[in-house]
Amino acid sequence: DLSLKIVSNELDYLDALNLFPNLNYTKLTKNWLQKSISCGSLQEVSFIYRGPIDNQYDDSSSSFQFKGLFKNSCLNVNDVDIKNINLVAKINNSSFLGEVQDGDLYGSEIEGTIKTFKDNNYYKLELKGDSEGPLLSILRLSNLNKIFDSEGESGEHYTNFYFISPLNSTLDLLGNNSNLELSTKIKGGNFKNKKTNLYFSDLYSSIEY
Length: 209
What we know:
Elements: E1 2-12, H1 13-18, H2 27-36, E2 37-51, E3 63-77, E4 80-92, E5 95-105, E6 108-119, E7 122-134, H3 135-141, E8 148-149, E9 156-166, E10 179-193, E11 199-208
């Protein structure tokens, strides 16, 4: 068996992810992170690995722990792009916990947590958090910016979200095995229909899903 500890001040995100071992219980999380993260660096990194040196993982009692800060990262979740993310990440064998300290969701601020974990022999992904900023962010997120446009101040939104789904290469937000909850408050909304020029101004509303 091999026991290894690595500490680094800064690594490129791809170099850091390539250091994750291909254990049975880390493969899904590693693959998801490699597909979802597309930029940034990893700072204050610590890896601890214990396992076989012959790459025979199937019958091994290997373990893997990781901790670090993803700095100015880019994350894509189901074709939704979040930029400038600062995320404190921890891995303990099959579980991943990412605490999003701040990020840019189409111009809105976002904070929350990202989890992957094993539940009854199935791996799941859980996302929850809060976002606030210009209403235009919600229009872009829901593709309603193809119908509506905003000139000047679009108003503000305050949104709380929760999503849980099987951890797959593609996520189905409204799938039978997924659960999506949204609570949004709109303040001072201003936008118009691009085709009819029907204008909505000073809109106050709440949306629950």
